[in-house]
């Protein structure tokens, strides 16, 4: 029974997008609403788990019983995840973390200039990869947002980031991915096992994902 297994476990969930600042009025972000991650948090709490929810900026109500940690940038999310990693039993990385950020952050608003503008970007830290490298007792669950060759890329992330499980969604499919109340996911485990789920609400997806996690604990 999922609840019996998850009860009192410390589950760290990341959700939402990150924001990477350009200047005091502008930033780069992505389409994540936080719905998938918050659904996981709500369900894990209902199952009796101790939940830390590390969230980028979203318009959702924070789950009452979660330890709630708001962040903005990929760097801040990295720091907050690392602070709780030792005490975590499970980490679920639902967040859509920026892979790049502006190399220069301006203190003052950038003024319009004639012609085109290029902004040089540098890589952010890959939080999940670092968690995989530092993994001890924790169960590590990633998400993969893909638009093509979903299985190939998802399995590659599962291996290269040293994960126990990855939840892949094709974000170009109708009813799947960013912003919607539903999702269509396939779960890949380290053992090679693959479970393709039909179109479900994010709440139902959360329940199934937690059930799979419980089976690994
Ligand atoms: O928030 P919603 O609107 O409900 O949408 C849900 C979702 C589409 C955001 C979610 O289902 C999802 O797919 N989340 C992962 C988004 C993503 O960034 O995927 P990715 O394939 O780029 O990254 C793979 C994994 O590495 C993810 O677990 C991500 O959290 C992690 N990552 C990526 C980059 C980085 N610098 N650090 C990371 O930890």
TrEMBL record:
Keywords: Decarboxylase, Flavoprotein, FMN, Ligase, Lyase, Magnesium, Metal-binding, Multifunctional enzyme. CTP binds at residues 99, 109, 143, 157, 161. It catalyses: (R)-4'-phosphopantothenate + L-cysteine + CTP = N-[(R)-4-phosphopantothenoyl]-L-cysteine + CMP + diphosphate + H(+); N-[(R)-4-phosphopantothenoyl]-L-cysteine + H(+) = (R)-4'-phosphopantetheine + CO2. Residues 6-215 form the DNA/pantothenate metabolism flavoprotein C-terminal domain. Its EC number is 4.1.1.36, 6.3.2.5. Residues 11-217 are annotated as: Phosphopantothenate--cysteine ligase. Binds 1 FMN per subunit. One of its GO terms (cellular component) is phosphopantothenoylcysteine decarboxylase complex. Pathway: Cofactor biosynthesis; coenzyme A biosynthesis; CoA from (R)-pantothenate: step 3/5; Cofactor biosynthesis; coenzyme A biosynthesis; CoA from (R)-pantothenate: step 2/5. GO terms for biological process: coenzyme A biosynthetic process; pantothenate catabolic process. Its cofactor is Mg(2+); FMN. GO terms for molecular function: FMN binding; metal ion binding; phosphopantothenate--cysteine ligase activity; phosphopantothenoylcysteine decarboxylase activity. Coiled coil: none annotated. It comes from the Bacteria. The keyword GTP-binding does not apply. Catalyzes two sequential steps in the biosynthesis of coenzyme A. In the first step cysteine is conjugated to 4'-phosphopantothenate to form 4-phosphopantothenoylcysteine. In the second step the latter compound is decarboxylated to form 4'-phosphopantotheine. Catalyzes two steps in the biosynthesis of coenzyme A. In the first step cysteine is conjugated to 4'-phosphopantothenate to form 4-phosphopantothenoylcysteine, in the latter compound is decarboxylated to form 4'-phosphopantotheine. In the N-terminal section; belongs to the HFCD (homo-oligomeric flavin containing Cys decarboxylase) superfamily. In the C-terminal section; belongs to the PPC synthetase family. This is Coenzyme A biosynthesis bifunctional protein CoaBC. It comes from Metabacillus arenae. The gene is coaBC. The chain holds residues 182 to 398 of 398 of the full protein.
């Amino acid at each position: 029974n999922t609840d019996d297994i998850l009860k009192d476990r410390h589950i760290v969930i990341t959700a939402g997008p990150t924001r990477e600042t350009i200047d005091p009025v502008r930033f780069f972000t992505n389409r994540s609403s936080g719905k998938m991650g918050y659904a996981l948090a709500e369900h894990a709490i209902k199952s009796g788990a101790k939940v830390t929810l590390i969230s980028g900026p979203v318009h959702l109500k924070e789950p009452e019983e979660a330890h709630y940690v708001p962040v903005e940038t990929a760097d801040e999310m990295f720091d907050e995840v690392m602070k709780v990693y030792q005490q975590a039993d499970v980490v679920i990385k639902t967040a859509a973390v920026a892979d790049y950020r502006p190399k220069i952050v301006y203190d003052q608003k950038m003024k319009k200039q004639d012609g085109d503008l290029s902004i040089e970007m540098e890589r952010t830290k890959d939080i999940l990869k670092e968690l995989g490298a530092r993994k001890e007792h924790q169960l590590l669950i990633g998400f993969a947002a893909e638009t093509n060759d979903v299985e190939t890329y998802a399995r590659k992330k599962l291996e290269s980031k040293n994960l126990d499980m990855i939840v892949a969604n094709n974000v170009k499919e109708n009813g799947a991915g960013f912003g919607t109340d539903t999702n269509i996911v396939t779960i890949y485990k380290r053992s090679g096992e693959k479970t393709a789920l039909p179109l479900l609400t994010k709440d139902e997806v959360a329940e199934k994902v937690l059930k799979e996690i419980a089976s690994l604990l």
